[in-house]
Every structure is written in structure tokens, then in C-alpha cells.
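Table S2 (continued). Query chain:
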Amino acid sequence: MFIKFIKKEMVLTISFVVALVSSFFVRPDMQYIGYIDFRTLSILFMLMLTMAGLQKLGIFKQAGEFLVYKARDTREMIAILVALSFFSAMVITNDVALITFVPFTIIALGIAGRTDMLILTVVLETIAANLGSMLLPIGNPQNLYLYSKAGMSLGQFLGCMLPYSIFAFILLAAVIFVRADGSGIEKSEKEKFIRTGKEKRLILVYALTFVVAILVVVRVIPYEAALAAVLALVLLFDRETLKKPDYSLLFTFIFLFVFIGNMKRIPAFSNALLSAVNGNEVVLSVALSQVISNVPAAILLSGFTGSYDKLIVGTNFGGLGTLIASMASLISFKLYCNTKDANKNKYILVFTGYSLLFLAALSFARMGISSGAGRYVMNSLSFLK
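Corresponding output:
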């Protein structure tokens, strides 16, 4: 059981080990509390509860099914599925988008008799979720953390990431147009969603908790009051949902906060890393994400640079590449592996190929965007500041 836990929670285990080892160099004291970003953890927890509740109610599946049944052919169906992952990830996070729509995709393509397109579709959905989530601070954990730490306005964040999001969407559309054919599809009877009075009340509750979380993100209300309100609502109306959030991610954040805080108090290590990171934030973020995934990379590097805009770009780009570069990518892979006649090696090959293609394209686009387009967009969005 211990070995299974380590394999399942590799990032959590590594973060715990490095935090523990660092505590031998910097003995625990009152400064440890100051390491932890409670605001980010609170927002993340509130969003996790909200998305878990809405997902349990089938809200996202219902919306996705409605759109897919509008598709006229295979290409349009795949385009809708990929677009659902791209746009929904901006609000419900990349991992929730994939947990919701990948199983639905497996069923939908099976019904349509197009399982030959399953690997391509799931791979593109995964890439779309990772790229769509980069547009907003609430799209993924590293965005939320870096946005909070940087003290950015929403306009500044959008100015940083909007050009890349537009480019990524156009590239996704181009790949779908080239790779997917326009053959007809079969459709089964549409599932009917009948809501009870309790379910309708829960939808309103989670809509309210989402609004509360967003108000904390844009710094309208304090996180302490918001967290208390959200917990009270969930305990009162749907306490079972408290079992759903990914608590391992929250503890991974805490352990990494401890590790980084301790490392900053060791002059030799701190000075060496400061020198290495300065001016190389994007490249190091991408490279480090390939090995430890982009969330730990964001937390680690943020302790040694103030160029948070570059870390945001680098860790979002860094979600592409290897299968472990983004934990959300592993979700899709595991869901695919549970399908009949799953070809794991082919999936990894296709995923890595397309992921590297998008990473290279975005890296190339960055050279043009950073030269002036990004600054123009930021100025255009100054009304959001």
C-alpha cells in the first residue's frame, strides 16, 4: 500500500521529502508559518469544492452533451469536444475539464463508431485544456499562485496571456481541420437531465461559492471571510462534497512552500539559484516543468525571481511536452488506459509529438508577441486594472 501510494502521489511524496530534508538545515521555527501562502490555498480550496459540487451534479456533462448533439459530422464533433476542453478549462480548471469531458468523449466516439479517432481527440482535448487554462488566474493552480503572489490586476494577467491563448486556439483549429474528416456520425438517444428541488438548490449554492471565490481572486473581499462562508454553505447543504477535493495538491503546495522558504535562508543555495534564474525564467520554467510538472516548478522558481509574468508564461508553456509536465495530462492518460483495446505506447507517442509541436509553435510565437503585440493588448485591457 505504501508503494502504491508513492506511485500514485509521486509529486506529493517528493515535495514532502525535500521539505523534510531542508528542515535539517533550517530547524523549524516561527518563520515557517510565514512561508505558507494561505490566500492562494484558500482560493484553490474554494474552487475545488465548487467544481466538485457542480461536477457531481452533472452540469458540465449536460452542457457538453447539448453542444455535441449539435454536431453534423466527425470533424465538427471533435472540434466541439476540443473547444469544450479549451474554454471550460479557463473557468473550471484544466483537470476538472478533462475529468468531465474525456469520459464523455470516449462514450461519444464509441457511439459514433469513430474509435479510430479516440487517441487524437483525447490528446487534442488534453492540450486544449492545458492551453485554455492559461488565460485566466483561476484556470490552473500555478496561475492562481503566481497571480496572487505578483499582486497583478486582471488586466495585466490577460495582457500577458491573451495573445498566446488566441494563437493556441487558432493552431488547435488548424490541426483539427487537417486531421479530422467530415464523415457522418451516429447519435444515440439524448440523455435527459431531470433536476430535483435539492439539486436545483445545490446549483444555486455552488454558483454562489464560485462568485465568492472570484471576489477573493479580484481582491474585493478578504479570503478569511470567504473561506468561512464557503465552508459553512458546503457543510450546511452538501457536506459529502468535502471528500472530493484533491487534498494532495494542497499539501504539495504546503511542503513546497516550506522547502522554498528554507532554501532562501541558506545563502549559498539562494545566491546560486538567484543567479541561475535571473533572465532565464521562461526557459527554466519550461525545462523544470518537464521533470517535476509545472505547479512545483512555479512555486520553486517564484522564490528566486520577481519576474512573475515570465514565470506565468514559462510554466503555462511548460505544461506541454512530457506526460508529467502537467498533472492534468496524466488524468487523460489514465482515463484512456481504462478503455477497451487501449494502446498506451501509441497514445504516449502521439501525445508527446503533438505536445512538443505546440510547445515549439508557442515558443516561436513568443518571439513575435513579446516584441510588441503583447504590450499593445495589455494597454488595450488597461480598463480592467
